[in-house]
UniProtKB/TrEMBL annotation:
Pfam families xref list: mTERF
Matching PANTHER family: CGI-12 PROTEIN-RELATED, TRANSCRIPTION TERMINATION FACTOR MTERF15, MITOCHONDRIAL-LIKE
Protein's GO biological process: DNA-templated transcription termination
Name of the protein this chain belongs to: Transcription termination factor MTERF6, chloroplastic/mitochondrial-like
Family, as annotated: Belongs to the mTERF family.
Length: 383
């Protein structure tokens, strides 16, 4: 009996050594093959995204987590579709970087209808290219369920296809992101606050992005603007709404801090904001450079800048510095007074400035034309 048991145990041990779990070994083999195929697919996808879509290795690696393919046939059709419709490699790279799954789309079935929708509303081929390349999210939206209702909603306020397309060109994402609740609610709040309808429609046309905001946040901003003393009947009210909408509360506090560094009180800063709301939309670097130029280089009092904060919005390189160079030259030559050097010359159009401060003095100071041209071309480095 003991001999029989020993033989049986030896046979069992032999079998388990050869194949303890035959079916499991088969599964392990399949898993190995799947892993190999998956690895090859990932490698091909990353390579394709880099070489055919001009994505950076980092972007390609990130995009490959959302899309995968083992041959170029399908993505090649998508790339060709975009090229045939006027999209540049840069456009395609941006679109695929944002929505890599588009590479698996049926160009004629999924992409073409979105483009045709814009064509039929009056957008030219080049306009469609710009709109889509700036807001590729449009390609992810249903034509019937989203794009048509969104366009018609905007058109209901703006009045025509032409004006609606023009508004979309200014902020292409509006057609992808707009919701009836947000747009209608924002318009109603502004009208109820006493903003003239003409001002509301003007901003919907030129700054449609403002009307995509969540209603609770929009209501909060309106209340803040009222507390700052803005008159709803003036265009500066809605400009202030737009300015505050574009920044976080922490950014607003930082910009207040930058102005305060130049000795301005919070009330003086708010007075400047009421006069020219765009002065708070400038970058922190731009505010510092402009204040430094007027206060340190030109020796202005900060009060003069507060009274005319629009000065801060002008381009230092193309406008402020060249004009300051001309005015300083004229003052040194006794051809103008110190009083005429403040504020107004910077507010004139280019033609007006040339007529008042350059052309009248060319006979006695021919170098003035060259000086102005040099500074226009050279900007801050030439001062």
């Amino acid at each position: 009996m003991s001999n029989f048991l020993c033989k049986t145990l030896l046979q069992v041990r032999h079998l388990t050594t050869i194949s303890p779990y035959p079916k499991l070994r088969c599964v392990q083999s399949l898993h190995f093959n799947y892993s190999t195929v998956s690895s090859d697919s990932h490698s091909f996808t990353v390579s394709y995204l880099i070489n055919s879509c001009s994505l950076s290795p980092e972007s390609a690696s990130s995009a490959s987590k959302l899309v995968s393919f083992i041959s170029p046939e399908k993505p090649d059709l998508v790339i060709s579709f975009f090229k045939n419709h006027g999209f540049s490699i840069a456009h395609i790279s941006f679109i695929i970087g944002k929505y890599p799954r588009i590479l698996l789309s049926n160009p004629n079935g999924a992409l073409l209808p979105r483009l045709e929708f814009l064509y039929t509303r009056g957008a030219s081929s080049s306009e469609v290219t710009k709109i889509i390349s700036k807001a590729p999210k449009i390609l992810m939206r249903s034509v019937d369920e989203h794009l048509v209702p969104a366009f018609d909603l905007l058109k209901g306020y703006l009045g025509s296809n032409e004006r609606t397309i023009a508004s979309i060109k200014r902020f292409p994402s509006i057609i992808a992101d707009i919701r009836q609740k947000h747009l209608s609610g924002s318009v109603r709040m502004l009208l109820d606050a006493g903003v003239p309808e003409a001002h509301v429609m003007y901003f919907l046309f030129y700054q449609p992005r403002m009307f995509t905001m969540a209603l609770d946040r929009f209501r909060e901003i309106l209340e803040d603007v009222k507390k700052m003393g803005f008159d709803p009947s003036k265009s500066s009210f809605i400009q202030a709404v737009h300015a505050i909408r574009g920044m976080s509360k922490s950014t607003w506090v930082r910009k207040l801090g930058i102005y305060k560094r130049w000795g301005l009180s919070e009330e003086e800063i708010l007075a400047a904001f009421r006069s020219h709301p765009w002065c708070m939309t400038l970058s922190e670097e731009k505010i510092m450079l402009a204040m430094d130029f007027f206060v340190k280089k030109l020796g202005w009092e900060t009060a003069a800048i507060v009274r005319s904060p629009v000065l801060l919005s002008f381009s230092l390189k193309k406008r402020t510095i060249p004009r300051a160079s001309v005015l300083l030259f004229l003052f040194q030559k006794g051809l103008t007074t110190k009083k005429t050097m403040l504020v107004k010359p910077y507010m004139y159009t280019e033609t007006q400035f040339l007529q008042k401060f350059v052309r009248p003095h060319l006979k006695e100071a021919p170098q003035l034309s060259k000086l102005y041209r040099i500074n226009v071309d050279g900007g801050i480095n030439r001062l």
